[in-house]
Design goal:
The chain has 437 residues and is an alpha+beta fold. Helix content is 23%, strand content 24%. It has twelve helices and 20 strands. Strand 7 and strand 8 form a beta hairpin. Helix 8 packs antiparallel against helix 9. The longest helix is centred in the C-terminal third of the chain and has 16 residues. The protein is globular, with a radius of gyration of 21 Å. The model has no long low-confidence stretch (mean pLDDT 94).
């Protein structure tokens, strides 16, 4: 396998000195390797938390076996390299769905645990880690640890959201959610401002399991925060034949786009057209679960639209209702940077189990920025200051450049977490934000 294949989804930073070893069976010992070790799944982390400059990546995608499926209770045990897409193919026809899913199904079960992923239902169900019953961690000294909320509880909480630094998760068992069919009863609501987002969101979270908004991040003035608010629930049982709703075939971006493809003019044009595509205030309908949860998965290798220099995804969380989010959006609008892909959502008050879990009660914004060098970094410094002053945090799975001081202030349990880090394991991210190695 060629090490160049093993990059992050944002394609920044570039890593040259990195070896790769594959794990084939969960009962095998860790392979002999040079330098620090780090598990690597499908590479959907945006920054350097999945990179290991000067070390070795342990590819887990061959750990792809299902171990046991309790059809009656919806409990699934499988190896850590199984993807969420493979899990859905098995469970949805049998009436079970993922308890929590991120915006792509092309992540492994191990990756979902290592980043304690969240989804559109955080206000109702919290993070993925809340639904994990147990897993096995293989450490570099050859020991294996069964971890659950009751057994090896410290290692359990460190591994959930632990960025793959506590050892290799070889298998895991988690609870699924019952569903009647693969459909979502979805609604899209036009919102004209950030204030309207808060109003619609407050009225929606009690009745809808899934909520999220796309906003036009370049709109300003009275239009600041305008967008489309999406909400939905799993559809009720259908007594007649299921309607024939199809999800389009998977396209792919064949080549790197030129660096100027994503620019203020194209972003403004897209945002205008996307916001005005919906003429009615509320639009409702039945959707297959895939376009509702995974619209970007319809285009393979979509990260190529940002060109060879790659891009950053900036995801932050700040207290709900604080002026910080309004000022963050204003700052981005003034800069005219960013891409059309912008997500705004609130996190609920259900605590995450992991020591380094990112989600916490508040409002979270996620958006992409093409890598334009120093001018992009200067904008991030402004945004960092707003997030830090509000007591917020950045998402390590999306990060490629946050300063160590910001990480250590935002994740106050990081020193406790560090006591559980396997002495042979590290990552480019961990070394960058801790300066420990």
């Amino acid at each position: 396998m060629h090490p160049d294949r093993y990059e992050s989804w944002g394609r920044f930073p570039k890593v040259c000195r990195q070896e790769v070893r594959s794990l084939r069976f969960r009962s095998d010992p860790l392979p002999e390797a040079e330098g620090p070790l780090l598990p690597y799944g499908l590479g959907r982390s945006y920054g350097d938390s999945c990179l290991n400059e000067g070390g070795t990546l342990l590819s887990t995608t061959n750990l792809d076996r299902l171990i046991h499926f309790d059809h009656e209770r919806g409990i699934l045990r499988c190896e850590a390299g199984v993807s969420l897409a493979e899990i859905l193919r098995l469970t949805v026809p049998r009436g079970w769905f993922l308890p929590v899913t991120p915006g792509t199904k092309f992540v492994t079960l191990g990756g979902a645990i290592a980043n304690d992923v969240h989804g559109k239902n955080h206000h109702a169900d919290g993070t993925f880690g809340r639904h994990v019953r147990c897993f096995e961690v293989l450490r570099s000294d050859g020991t294996r640890h069964l971890c659950s909320p009751e057994e090896n509880a410290g290692l359990f909480r460190a591994t959930i959201g632990g960025l793959g630094l506590t050892g290799v998760v070889t298998w895991a068992e988690f609870q699924l959610r019952p569903v009647s069919n693969p459909l979502i009863e979805a609604e899209s609501v036009r919102i004209r401002s950030l204030d309207e987002f808060y109003e619609v969101n407050a009225a929606s979270e009690a009745d809808y399991r899934y909520t999220v908004a796309w906003i036009d991040v370049l709109a300003s003035g009275r239009n600041l925060g305008r967008g489309l608010y999406n909400r939905g629930n799993h559809a009720a049982p259908v007594t007649a034949d299921l309607p024939k709703l199809r999800w389009g075939s998977r396209l792919a971006v064949p080549l790197d786009a030129p660096g100027w493809a994503i620019n203020p003019l194209t972003v403004r044009a897209f945002n205008f057209a996307y916001y005005h595509k919906q003429l009615r205030r509320v639009q409702a309908g039945l959707l297959p679960y895939e376009p509702f949860f995974y619209p970007l998965d319809a285009v393979a290798k979509w990260n190529r639209v940002y060109g060879k220099r790659g891009f950053f995804q900036y995801q932050c969380v700040v207290p709900t209702g604080s002026e910080a989010m309004r000022e963050i959006i204003r700052t981005i609008a003034r800069s005219a940077e960013a891409s059309p892909l912008v997500v705004l959502k609130t996190f609920g008050d259900l605590p995450s189990p992991g020591m380094l879990s990112f989600p916490r009660q508040g409002i979270t914004l996620a958006l992409d920025f093409p890598n334009r060098g120093e001018r992009t970094f200067r904008l991030f410094e402004e945004l960092d200051r707003l997030v830090a002053d509000a007591g917020g945090a950045l998402y390590p799975a999306k990060d490629a450049r946050m300063p160590p001081a910001m990480f250590q202030r935002s994740f106050p349990r990081w020193r406790e977490f560090a006591t559980y880090v396997d002495p042979r394991f590290s990552s480019s991210f961990w070394r960058r934000v801790t300066h420990e190695f």
